[in-house]
Design a protein that fits this description.
Elements: H1 3-20, H2 33-37, E1 40-43, E2 48-50, H3 64-73, E3 79-83, E4 89-93, H4 95-106, E5 118-122, H5 130-142, H6 149-161, H7 166-176, H8 180-189, H9 194-203, H10 207-215, H11 222-235, H12 242-270, E6 289-290, E7 294-295, H13 304-307, E8 313-317, E9 323-327, E10 336-337, H14 350-381
Parallel strand pairs: 2-4, 3-5
Antiparallel strand pairs: 1-5, 3-4, 6-9, 7-10, 8-9
Helix pairs in contact: 3-4, 5-6, 6-8, 8-10, 9-11, 11-12, 12-14
């Protein structure tokens, strides 16, 4: 009676024995992210290469401590890879650990150590999804202190340039705890050199502020001015960026003035028109007169086109860096003064020059501040929350 069950038991034994035999893991097929996260496969390090969308590009080599640890114990934490078309696997999280194991295996036989495989999480679902691969790599490295500021900004810039849906872009911004605008700003922030990036990061600038800093980085003392403004905003109750906006506006005005002046100077140089000095040494006579004060020998107005052939044709730049046309010496070149022309001004004293410079600077500062304040009021009128957090929108103050 017991023969049949015994035969059944005996027949099932080989099946169980066969199932206990370890098999070489097959290359996983694409699956859902949740399933893929559970697939830990040991791969030959020789099959693993750096993924093109690995966010770390600086300090990518393993240090001596990591090499020693891996040589002794192997890689303990799985690296993350995705299959490549040529049969290799691209690592986007754990490239330094991978290199350490590759180096250890290269000398394993000579040093009497076993050549080890690497525990990996194979993300077949990321094949063709460069944006998510890059994002995951950035998040992984961003949590490590060794990640270079340049790597972080460059990685976010890359994410901003990848063609993805608006929903995916929102997901990226939330995952990185940044605003959508910061994704776009990363491209400008990447223009900062390493020292400037490090300085901005230490000060706690966000990507938008880094981009704005890059915009005025050529202006003298720009970084220091923005740092002081950022500190003042941080010290005020309710935060905001009023001091930053004012400082940035002044720096942009300085940059615009410098560019406008240089453009005007280049134009005069190209036309071979001399630029008259704004001031002469005290006691020195300025013989030049603007063309608006002059007439031809027949009494006709002296226009810039008519005067262009005069050897005394020259110019000065006004406060907006536009050329004002002059004759350097009307008496020498045969021009007449128009009736009612004012007497030429005497050379300014040093005190008068300083007062004039302060007046010009004050006018520009007022113009710049007015623009910032108008933008501030415009935002409030659109219903934006009050920066002082008084609880009303628009602000009741």
């Amino acid at each position: 009676m017991s023969t049949a069950p015994q035969a059944k038991k005996t027949a099932s034994t080989p099946a169980r024995a066969a199932s206990a035999i370890p098999r070489t893991p097959a290359r996983p097929e694409p699956s859902t992210p949740e399933e893929t996260h559970d697939q830990i496969v040991r791969l030959d390090p020789a099959l693993i290469v750096r993924d093109e969308y690995n966010a770390r590009t600086i300090d990518t080599e393993p240090d001596d401590d990591l090499k020693a640890s891996v040589a002794e114990l192997g890689v303990q934490d799985p690296v993350h890879v995705r299959p490549q078309e040529n049969g290799t696997y691209g690592v986007f999280k754990g490239w330094r650990r991978t290199q350490a194991q590759q180096a250890a295996n290269a000398t394993a036989e000579a040093e009497g150590r076993p050549a080890r495989k690497i525990p990996t999480i194979v993300r077949a679902d990321l094949v063709g999804n460069d944006a998510m691969t890059h994002l995951l790599s950035l998040i992984e490295n961003d949590h490590r202190e060794q990640m270079h500021d340049r790597d972080r900004v460059k990685a976010i810039e890359t994410l901003a340039l990848i063609d993805v849906s608006e929903e995916q872009r929102e997901t990226m911004a939330r995952a990185l705890k940044i605003k959508r605008a910061e994704l776009r700003a990363a491209r400008e922030a990447a223009r900062l050199d390493d020292a400037q990036l490090r300085r901005a990061s230490v000060q706690g600038f966000d990507l938008m502020q880094m981009a704005e800093m890059a915009d005025v980085s050529d202006v003298s003392r720009a970084a220091q001015v923005l740092e002081e403004a950022h500190a003042k905003d941080a010290a005020e109750e309710g935060g905001g960026r009023g001091h930053w906006d004012q400082a940035l506006a002044r720096l942009r005005q300085t940059k615009a003035d410098t560019e406008a002046r240089q453009k005007a100077l280049d134009g005069l140089k190209e036309a071979d028109i001399p630029l008259l000095p704004d001031y002469f040494p005290y006691g020195t006579k300025d013989t030049s007169r603007p063309l608006t004060d002059l007439r031809t020998p027949l009494g006709a107005p002296l226009t810039p086109d008519k005067h262009a052939y005069c050897s005394g044709h020259a110019a000065r730049l006004d406060e907006e860096f536009q050329p004002v046309w002059y004759c350097s010496d009307p008496a020498q070149y045969g021009h007449k003064l128009r009736p009612g022309a004012k007497q030429p001004k005497q050379s300014m004293t040093e005190k008068e020059k300083e007062e004039r410079a302060r007046t010009i600077a004050g006018n520009k500062a007022w113009k710049t501040a007015r623009t910032v304040r108008e933008d501030f009021v415009r935002r409030l009128c659109k219903g934006s929350p009050c920066p002082r957090r008084c609880g009303s929108s628009p602000c009741a103050r």
